[in-house]
């Protein structure tokens, strides 16, 4: 049963078609990598699922309310310049389940501090988010996702600018979420990493080239087709 079902999705941004003919679904409990060349439409696909870009065509059906989906956008400078402490930032993870009029309680603060300690960030809980290194910042964002306790988690290039050790730790967290039965999809570039850790893959080149078991999707023939599709697309755009 897909928890996200896409049917003929097309996205046009500033007069340019950046995604089209996206039909398929993310199965409940699946762990999927979304791969493809720069500009293939990977981030746009996640944004479309989150309702952050309008659909020119097609339909997206979700098994849960949008606000129950945890979405980690690509690391943004804007977020890093927010005058927020690390603890306050991760407490935002409780936001979808805390009503507007209720404050975050002591139990939730304790859970947040415990989760921060779990990724080695206990000592920096009171520091401003802007003081964190790229790796620490990404760990903090993973803690925020964890506290959101969402059944569906979408990650856009979560290991960008993160060193190998931190990447391994974050991959373990992703595997844990998968083990807990959550549906996880991540935009990634490293095919070796995808083969090692992600059972399913969506190979995108403005439209899906293949979607299914990672080993079958990332075969030479599909990668060649994706390359051709991207080159043809770029030539037409030019
Ligand atoms: N807000 C926007 N307005 C106009 N064009 C956009 C906008 N956002 C993205 N695009 C274009 O849409 C296309 C797909 O972008 P997208 O960021 O989804 O690609 P991607 O596959 O995630 O690429 P990358 O691997 O480089 O992050 C690109 O050509 C990009 O320039």
TrEMBL record:
It holds the Pfam family ABC_tran. GO terms for molecular function: ATP binding; ATP hydrolysis activity. Gene3D superfamilies: P-loop containing nucleotide triphosphate hydrolases. Signal peptide: none annotated. Residues 4-231 form the ABC transporter domain. Belongs to the ABC transporter superfamily. PANTHER family: IRON TRANSPORT SYSTEM ATP-BINDING PROTEIN HI_0361-RELATED, METAL TRANSPORT SYSTEM ATP-BINDING PROTEIN TM_0124-RELATED. This is ABC transporter ATP-binding protein.
């Amino acid at each position: 049963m897909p928890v996200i079902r896409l049917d003929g999705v097309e996205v046009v941004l500033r007069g340019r078609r950046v995604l089209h003919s996206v039909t398929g679904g993310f199965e409940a409990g699946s762990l999927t990598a979304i791969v493809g060349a720069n500009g293939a439409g990977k981030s746009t696909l996640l944004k479309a699922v989150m309702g952050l870009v309008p659909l020119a065509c097609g339909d997206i059906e979700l098994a849960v309310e949008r606000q129950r989906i945890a979405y980690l956008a690509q690391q943004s400078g804007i977020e890093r310049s927010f005058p927020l402490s690390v603890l306050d930032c991760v407490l935002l993870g409780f936001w979808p389940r805390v009503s507007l009029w209720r404050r975050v309680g002591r139990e939730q603060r304790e859970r947040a501090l415990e989760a921060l300690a779990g990724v080695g960030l206990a000592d920096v809980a009171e520091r401003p988010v802007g003081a964190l290194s790229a790796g620490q910042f990404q760990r903090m964002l993973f803690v925020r996702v964890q506290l959101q306790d969402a059944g569906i988690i979408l990650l856009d290039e979560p290991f960008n600018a993160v060193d190998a050790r931190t990447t391994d730790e974050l991959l373990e967290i992703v595997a844990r979420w998968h083990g807990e039965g959550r549906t996880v999809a991540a935009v990634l570039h490293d095919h070796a990493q995808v083969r090692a850790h992600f059972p399913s893959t969506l190979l995108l080149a403005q439209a899906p080239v293949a979607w299914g078991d990672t080993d079958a999707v990332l075969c030479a023939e599909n990668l060649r087709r994706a390359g051709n599709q991207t080159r043809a697309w770029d030539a037409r755009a030019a």
